[in-house]
């Protein structure tokens, strides 16, 4: 499958020789046995990539799955329970909560409830995002791009000092409601399956990948090829987002 629009090399769309548009055997969630009995929280889990993540962690055997979104989560809970039965896993404990990640009080309350219900949290999939329409700045509503900052930037907190491993995962060009804000000429590129991002996230969190903390990784890059370049990436301080002056 070939994308209709080519991107400059610095975008990193083809950082590995092998590029994926759908999930593949190495990252298939059902094969990630290390996730058994883990507790995970997924934001914006009502649809798209978030829903796919909830299903993927279920396939991998997670025992406690918290899902948060502003929309109804009943269909996602049903999908989780059906997937657990299909995989032969015990039904995971499911916690559904209305969540607006830009509302600090809401976030604090929901995570306190998660801690009380699960006793711990092993993995956070911070899937919530916001994208303003692709218009010239003078033609936009300031509230739209300020919302993008609130959701995409201000809700991410530096926790490296507490030993938290944080990996920035680009899900690829997935046809979701959020991405429709892009200009129409990019819509032909929305060919990636949400399961690719979901399974990649399950694989990346199956064990502590401390060397990947603070680095960028695209779901379409081949996992095996990226892992084989670990020394090159670490020694060259690559895959980090930096401001170069």
TrEMBL record:
The keyword Oxidoreductase applies. It comes from Botrytis elliptica. It comes from the Eukaryota. SUPFAM superfamilies: NAD(P)-binding Rossmann-fold domains (SSF51735). PANTHER family: CLAVALDEHYDE DEHYDROGENASE, SHORT-CHAIN DEHYDROGENASES/REDUCTASES FAMILY MEMBER. Keywords: Oxidoreductase. InterPro entries: NAD(P)-bd_dom_sf, SDR_fam. Belongs to the short-chain dehydrogenases/reductases (SDR) family. It holds the Pfam family adh_short. This is NAD(P)-binding protein.
